[in-house]
Task: structure prediction
Amino acid sequence: MIVGSTVASKAHRSYSGAAMDQSVTRMHVPHSHVTFDDGIVLECGTTLQRLTVAYRTYGTLNADRSNAILVCHALTGDQYVAERHPVTGKPGWWEAVVGPGRPIDTDRFFVICQNVLGGCMGSTGPLSYRENPDGTQTDEPWGTDFPPVTIRDMVRAQKRLVDHLGIKRLFAVLGGSMGGMQALQWAALYPDQVFAALPIATASYHSAQNIAFHEVGRQAIFADPDWRNGRYWESGLIPARGLAVARMCAHITYLSEEALTRKFGRRLQNAPKDSTEAINLFGDMFEVESYLRHQGSAFVQRFDANSYLTITRAMDYFDLAADFGGDLAMAFKGARTRFLLASFTSDWLFPTSQSRAIARALNRAGANVSFVEFPTDKGHDAFLLDEPDFHRALAGFLRGCAIHAGLQRL
Amino acid sequence: MSGHDHVRFLTKNMRVDLALIAGMIAPGSRVLDIGCGDGSLIDHLFQTKACDARGIEIDMAEVTQAVAYGLPVMHGDADVDLAHYPDNAFDYVVLSRALQAVERPREVLAQMLRIGTRAVVSFPNFGHWLVRWQLLATGRMPMTATWDRPWHETPNIHPCTIRDFFILCEEEGYVVEQWLAADDGGRRTPWRRFLNLANIFGEQGVFLLRRR
Result:
């Protein structure tokens, strides 16, 4: 086992290329990580000889190691949940929720966030060096030959780090969207090692509509000539345009019609003069177009296209009930874990009906479940944004759980 | 049982029969409180009786309040969501001052005694003398401290008397293990042993039921 803190993960390489009329240089950034030399056997049957898990922690683990909270990130998130991102320079993706005095209070809890298996921020994924059958490393990345991973594989990889940190039971596992899928999977796979699970804005399976949107994104990447069947490192370019379009399409699904109307309406703005894009033949552009292009071009600077393919596929495969004869309640049979399901009124990607279905399955299993839907016009992204009621409920739920776990007095 | 009005009715009156209901519940038991409002009863049962108490509430603002207070409460509707609990999941299922507000009281009671060994039910008594007198004297729907909303906007769509409830229990084969009539302040009234008097002077009935 190799533990690195300042060593740059080998997984990271530099690319440059054009994205939406701008060149992109992927920064070479070191990520704290641990490498398990005994590897991991994936659900597909493939063995990865080595497993690297990049992660960040916040707060202090108490003496009996009972105050650990695992935060699971969503599709395009990463381990930099509560600190400035080393690549983008932007604040952590959940600083509103995780930090000193925040709903997940790092003065009281030890917070762990890991880059998922298949990710591109230091954990083993398509950017990692491919292994020979004998386990030795080659000097080229896996690319699209990286084996398909599942949400369960991601959780089993996370469990390795949790074990490595000497934590017998997590006080809580939580996450939104794909992070919520992981929270559900944790509760189903390791029921005795999860005191509380908080699946937020999520579902127990990826719906046909969600798979459809992912497929549009993947086809956009495939259609980019710079993708080169996934071997884009050979040209030194990245499929920036395809990945940006995938992001633009996905980003629409994270918002709501009301939010888009509120933020942009039908307002026009002047097109950039130096732009060569065909659309600018119209002379001007809608603000929402400009916004989406910005989202697309910012994304390609921090995310790897093959990783996007791998992780979207993992989400598509997710169907927790399918592992239990089609009955989701069986996934949680006899569970002593306390659950908080949270959803948002304007979220049409992971609508409340999906959370309610999970809550009802938990009822059938006799589990202890809280379930709240929060009113907001911000769509799926609401779980990442400033939603005071949601944050109050998160904090209160954790406080209640801390009392029941013996972490806090009445 | 729709939305906010119903909840305002509940919370306004929640505390008055809280102690009476809690008095019927054994320490350390598993309890489901249907229409739990902000969760006062489940908090009380956890803190004073170490019960594993959970709640269902239809008003989202109340659910948010309860969860933010650290209580295990889920959004749900008594008329719909009880079907999703397994048989005998609880020792007690509580329906406090909400029986008259659900769409199908008979079915809700049946679900309560399917998922719980016992049911605790309280409801405002429509047989109270003041209600009877107002209807007789004015010929209009009664308006009292308890029945305080005009007929066209009350959430209390299924009013019943204490006698009606006894008859329903008999028809359904439920055993009334304990019952009492109380005034609106939650005080037990001296006529509790006499059904006729209780049905005239009791402002609310509180029942502990089990299956035969």
In short: Confidence is low (pLDDT under 50) at residues 1-14 of chain B. The interface with chain A takes residues 47, 52, 54, 60, 63-64, 67-76, 81, 84-86, 89 of chain B (CB under 8 Å). Residues 16 and 185 of chain B are 5 Å apart (CA to CA).
